[in-house]
UniProtKB/TrEMBL annotation:
Highest taxon of the lineage: Bacteria
Lineage, top ranks: Bacteria, Pseudomonadati, Pseudomonadota, Betaproteobacteria, Burkholderiales
Protein name: ABC-type phosphonate transport system, periplasmic component
GO cellular component: ATP-binding cassette (ABC) transporter complex
Coiled coil (residue ranges): none
Family, as annotated: Belongs to the phosphate/phosphite/phosphonate binding protein family.
Signal sequence, renumbered to the chain: 1-26
Length: 292
């Protein structure tokens, strides 16, 4: 579980580290004419773009350049964009971040969100992988799903693939493909929910947030689905930067998220349905590297 209280130390350290860049490094840095942003597609892409728009507006004011959205086609496409230099700033899933970091150690994870909750004044900085079924189905236990059809999200999704394959499979003692009769990828968490609601699959692994948000917005009712399995806490999605960007640009971007104690523009917080941004570092995601 992430410790919100200690998050602001990494923020100070990260800013100090950026300040210490050498003149030679600064001379070779990149300062694009437009900031290119992308994100792993967790739900409907246009809906997510609309929710992020106040953040884009705030970034544009702070850095003095337009912010372009690079529409994501998959988790892997966003990673490739960062590696190829066609994406400058991104919101990744934890597993996607680890994959990108492994290929480019210079990628900087600097912020995540504390999401609104009813029982935590500081907000949750973690979520869970959950296995859900329709509430009107006959499935009451994990064992009752053996030999059934299950939906995953994307091969690079933390809660929708990585945790199920490594942690859930350890619980059952079998790979997913041997425990279930068929394993399919839906491409996004909301699509997995849709497939389940339409009876196209018997069960689905999704993030707990992807169930909570549509329930809170009234899109679905919580009693439509039943949770049969919940993982341990997972750190939330990191916002990341390419290290090749010039240090002054990186400082301005990070400040948009983390100045004022992470309380950005009120419209940004409301649109994203979060309490605030909190600093994170690479070490916060070490728990996922330790998976078998």
């Amino acid at each position: 579980m992430l410790n919100v209280g200690r998050f602001f130390q990494p923020f100070i350290i990260s800013i100090a580290a950026l300040t210490c860049l050498s003149i030679a490094q600064a001379a070779e840095c990149e300062k694009p004419g437009r900031l290119r942003f992308s994100f792993v597609p967790q739900n409907d892409v246009q809906t997510e773009v609309d929710a992020l728009q106040p953040l884009f507006d705030e970034l544009q004011l702070a850095i003095g350049m337009p912010v372009d959205v690079v529409a994501p086609s998959s988790y892997g496409a966003v990673i490739e964009g960062l590696l190829a230099g066609t994406v400058d700033l991104a919101r990744l899933g934890p597993a996607a971040y680890i994959s990108a970091k492994k290929q480019d150690p210079g990628i900087i994870a600097f912020a995540t969100v504390a999401r609104k909750t009813s029982d935590r004044s500081t907000g949750d900085t973690f979520y869970h992988s959950i296995l859900i079924v329709r509430n009107d189905s006959t499935y009451q236990t994990i064992e009752s799903l053996r030999g059934k059809k299950v939906a995953l999200v994307d091969p690079d999704s933390t809660s929708g693939a990585l945790i199920p394959r490594h942690v859930f499979s350890k619980k059952t003692g079998l790979p997913l493909e041997k425990y279930f009769s068929q394993v399919v990828y839906s491409g996004a968490h909301d699509q997995s929910l849709l497939n389940l609601s339409k009876n196209r699959v018997d069960a689905a692994f999704i993030s707990s947030t992807s169930l909570t948000i549509p329930v809170e917005s009234g899109q679905i009712k919580r009693d439509e689905f039943r949770t049969l399995w919940t993982s341990k806490p997972i750190p939330r999605n990191p916002f990341v930067l390419r290290n090749q960007l010039c240090s002054d640009l990186k400082r301005k971007i990070i400040a948009v998220f983390l100045e004022r104690g992470g309380n950005a523009n009120k419209n940004v917080m409301q649109s994203l349905n979060v309490m605030r941004f909190v600093p994170i570092s690479d070490q916060d995601y070490q728990i996922l590297r330790n998976l078998p």
